[in-house]
Specification:
Layout: H1 6-12, E1 15-23, E2 29-38, E3 45-55, H2 58-68, H3 75-99, E4 109-126, E5 129-137, H4 140-147, E6 151-153, H5 156-161, H6 170-178, E7 185-190, E8 193-199, E9 209-215, H7 218-227, H8 239-243, H9 248-254, H10 258-261, H11 270-273, H12 275-284, H13 290-312, E10 319-323, H14 330-339, E11 344-347, H15 358-372, H16 379-382, E12 392-394
Parallel strand pairs: 1-4, 4-6, 7-10, 10-11
Antiparallel strand pairs: 1-2, 2-3, 4-5, 6-12, 7-8, 8-9
Helix pairs in contact: 3-4, 6-15, 7-13, 9-13, 13-14
Bound molecules: adenosine-5'-diphosphate (ADP) and magnesium ion (MG).
């Protein structure tokens, strides 16, 4: 036993190579950000060296979505899928390292968010007791075993155990990456779900406000799939939405969804804006033209975001910084710009972070803190009663 315990070796290094893996509610695939990290806590410095996206095969996507929207998902499905995704994540790291010409053995850490298949912060009844819970799968023992790299996974349960929603967790990373002494900033991530982190100028971590606004592209993706009879899974660059007309009466009804007006802390997912919700809209408004429907649900997303910013953020920020896979939909961005005036719109790219790498980088940041034994939840965002060290460490 000459090798140092990887935890001791990790914290004693000046620069570390961390592979962040994110697989979000869109279930579109895995985002990998190979990141160089130095320091920890507020002194942390990060640099994305390589970003790569590994799309899920269509059948795998269907499997995941099938599990996520069922109330009776069979354990005999979840258990093997957990191990299978572990393999997919490990292969993504190995293949990404190859593209980046980095030897996998040089990685100091993999930080994997995992695929959420169930997230219920409000709780469900077990033996008469209300129990909040959440599950992200993609077995870390498989990742660590296949790559030989220490792996942090399962970030959400520790925050929930501390009384929080287990989400959003990205605000910690937003604070590390975007805080500024003279400018107030709002980081807006548009994935399947949209979420915001507001950081006042010269703020301390406890002044951060963050929550999910409602749908990001989840409803748009669903409609894109239905209207193309399964040929497409997204409305590329918002093209269909741009050629349709927003149906104001439908929009008026959609925006009444109680989650949009709910006071933070709040988090949401497929349970609220998934297949059931979007399918019902289609059933109810059968007569609407497809492109008009695309325009309307895109406007719904923009309105949900703008409405939440105006209702629950104390003052409009100097800068809004976009990130996430949904950000390239210019129509969505234009709608947002129309609704929120007098703000400078930036993207994570302006900070050297590719749009789709932002969340994967965020989990690399969180994983770094885990190995240091540093808390990385933001209680003002999740509603937790205390700080918590997030995640579990698996040694190879
Ligand atoms: N070119 C594009 N135009 C519009 N939307 C896009 C484009 N590329 C990706 N997206 C959207 O981004 C989503 C994925 O973004 P991502 O940040 O990975 O979200 P999640 O974290 O929910 O997986 C896709 O489901 C799709 O809606
Ligand atoms: Mg994704």
């Amino acid at each position: 036993m000459t090798e140092l315990n990887p935890i001791i070796s990790y914290v004693s290094k000046k620069d570390r190579l961390v592979a962040g893996l994110m697989s979000g509610t869109s279930a579109d695939g895995v985002d990998l950000a190979i990141t160089q990290i130095s320091g920890n806590g507020l002194d942390m410095k990060t640099k994305v060296l390589h970003y790569q996206f590994f799309p899920y095969a269509q059948k795998l996507k269907e499997e995941i979505l099938g599990l996520s929207c069922s109330n009776n998902s069979a354990l005999s499905m979840i258990s093997p899928l957990n191990f299978y995704l572990g393999e997919i994540f490990a292969e993504a790291v190995i293949s990404g390292c190859k593209s980046a010409q980095i030897n996998v053995s040089k990685l100091d850490l993999i930080a994997s968010h995992g695929q959420t298949v169930y997230h219920n912060p409000e709780g469900s009844k077990i033996l008469g007791k209300n129990i909040p819970s959440t599950i992200q799968i993609g077995e870390s023992s498989v990742i660590a075993s296949k790559t030989g790299v220490m792996t942090v996974s399962d970030f959400r349960p520790a925050d929930m155990a501390a009384g929080g929603q287990g989400a959003p967790l990205v605000p910690y990373a937003d604070f590390i990456l975007y805080r500024d002494l003279s400018r107030s900033r709002l980081s807006l991530n548009i994935g399947g779900i949209s979420n915001i982190t507001y950081i006042p100028a010269a703020a301390s971590m406890s002044e951060v406000i963050a929550f999910d606004c409602g749908p990001g592209n989840m409803v748009i993706d669903y409609m894109a799939g239905k209207f193309s009879r399964g040929k497409k899974s997204i409305d590329e660059d918002g093209k269909r939405a741009s050629s349709g007309k927003i149906q104001k009466d439908i929009l008026k009804t959609l925006i009444k969804h109680p989650f949009i007006k709910k006071k933070p802390p709040k988090s949401t997912g497929r349970e609220e804006f998934g297949e059931e919700f979007a399918g019902n809209i289609l059933k109810r408004y059968k007569k609407a033209k497809p492109d008009d429907m695309m325009a309307t649900v895109t406007a719904f997303t923009a309105e949900a975001i703008a409405g939440n910013i105006k209702s629950f953020i104390p003052a409009l920020p100097h800068d809004i910084i976009l990130g996430g896979g949904g950000a390239p939909a210019f129509i969505l961005l234009n709608l947002l710009k129309e609704k929120i005036e007098g703000v400078k719109f930036l993207t994570s790219d302006d900070f050297g972070i590719p749009l789709k790498a932002k969340e994967a980088l965020s989990f690399a940041i969180l994983g770094n803190e885990t190995v240091f034994g540093y808390p990385s939840n933001v209680p003002s965002a999740t509603g937790a009663s205390r700080n918590a060290v997030l995640g579990k460490i698996t040694l190879p």
